[in-house]
């Protein structure tokens, strides 16, 4: 088995310790999430806290694709995070990634700096009375506009993938996570509104966000609202239909 380990120059002082943690991932750190697909752990070294994401072991065909044809999810996460930061988009700082190969890709890990955030976008979906909700939604629309203006199509733009930190005085910072699926392309209005679909927006949320986005982009509020509603409802209907089919099969 061969190992490929890349470290950001800013964190080379942690290189040896982090490498050891990654090689002994099962017994290192504390679990943040332990899913069927991916596992995230948190580890603290000399007062510095890192999050480590281990991606699901690919099947044989996928492992060969990741070895010879496509970058691993860990490598993409590291590179995309670096690109986002260059463009002024916040994301937990990319620290390192590690790939283990045995024929094809065996497993991979992405390490980022831990961000002490206050909540994620999901609370706005589930809590209509969340403090300052309308203002946060406006700022989230502006944040998404910033992505689009930088030709970033974040394909996993969903409620759990934006962390929100309150800076005080009604100002919020937004951090993207789960970065391995992105396209970098110029987006028209329809494509921009399509990118909102996974956020699972209610009518009230669309009213607020479409108005804010239209003012920033210089487009008609009516057209922006109609497209955001269309793509959101189509996505929600598709997901709900899939869930209904699964329940019927049980």
From TrEMBL:
GO MF entries: kinase activity
SUPFAM superfamilies tied to this protein: Protein kinase-like (PK-like)
Residue ranges, compositional bias (Basic residues): 239-250
Region forming the signal peptide: none
Organism superkingdom: Bacteria
Protein's name in the database: Lipopolysaccharide kinase
Source organism of the structure: Rasiella rasia
Annotated keywords: Kinase, Transferase
